Amino acid sequence: MVALVFTAGSAAILVGAMVVVMVPNIFIAALGLVASLAGIAVLYILLDADFLAAAQFMIYVGGISVLILFAVMLTAQINRASTANRLTPIAILISVVSFLGISYAMTRESWSGVEFGNVLLPMVGSSDQEGTYLGDILFTDFLLPFELAGILLLVATIAALVVARER
Amino acid sequence: MIALEHYLILSAALFSIGLFGSLAKRNVVIILMSIELMLNGINLSLVAFSRFLLPSEMVGHIFVLFIFTIAAVEVAIALAILLVIFYKKSSINSSDLDLLKW
């Protein structure tokens, strides 16, 4: 069952990603991106990262994809603009080398001793759920980066408004 | 059983596809989508490492949450810049954006 879901999710990811980089129609490419991001969310569920799966759906599938679709509609060069440039053979070479290199580096060490064990989260209050623990460490150990991320979002919102406003 | 290697190779493949797209495409929107694919490949490997190696600490989850934030910020600003460029030049091909090129 797990293997079946993993296969389906990774097929969605890879096919969606190939659609993004292969299809000349940019609208269909955006739909391929949605399929790929949804497949990632499925794999997050398999990895017991329920909160991240929900966040992936809300932020990527719901937010970023809609933003990209807006850009596709507003810039309206749907059929002719996504042609490949002159670097395509070199790009294929670089990406194949990068895939082989990363795969080799990541599997050179044997991970056979690593088990897919049970998750034992520490108790926070009266709950040992993932979201509770995540919120707890976000507001204790990772408080400074959390606040900085909030400031970054505020600055980016203002910056996007200033850049894109009518002159 | 699905082992750690499967997730790692899948994330490497996703990263490489995104790398190809960001190098070989002319349309800036497609390049942005490819960057999102690369970020998602990284996120997948982070969550897999966290789940298999340190399942009770969730440090990978924290990394991924901050990468979500950065990705959202990046897309918002990039698309704002993109719209301005499109209004000025009526094109979003990266080969037409040669103002700073001599």
Layout of helices and strands:
The complex is a heterodimer of chains A (167) and B (102).
Chain A lengths: L1 H21 L3 H21 L3 H26 L12 H20 L22 H10 L3 H22 L3
Chain B lengths: L3 H21 L3 H26 L5 H31 L13
Helix pairs in contact in B: 1-2, 2-3
Give the CA-CA distance, first to last residue of chain A. 56 Å
The averaged pLDDT of chain B comes out at: 89
SSE order of chain A, as H and E?
HHHHHH
Structural class of chain B: mainly alpha
How would you explain this protein's 3D organization?
- The complex is a heterodimer of chains A (167) and B (102).
- Chain A has 167 residues and is mostly helical.
- In chain A, 72% of the residues lie in helices and 0% in strands.
- Chain A is globular, with a radius of gyration of 20 Å.
- Chain B has 102 residues and is mainly alpha-helical.
- Chain B has a domain at 27-93.
- Chain B has 3 helices and no strands.
- In chain B, α1 packs antiparallel against α2 and α2 packs antiparallel against α3 (59-89).
- The longest helix of chain B has 31 residues, at 59-89.
- Chains A and B meet through α1, α2, α3, α4 and α5 of A and α1, α2 and α3 of B.
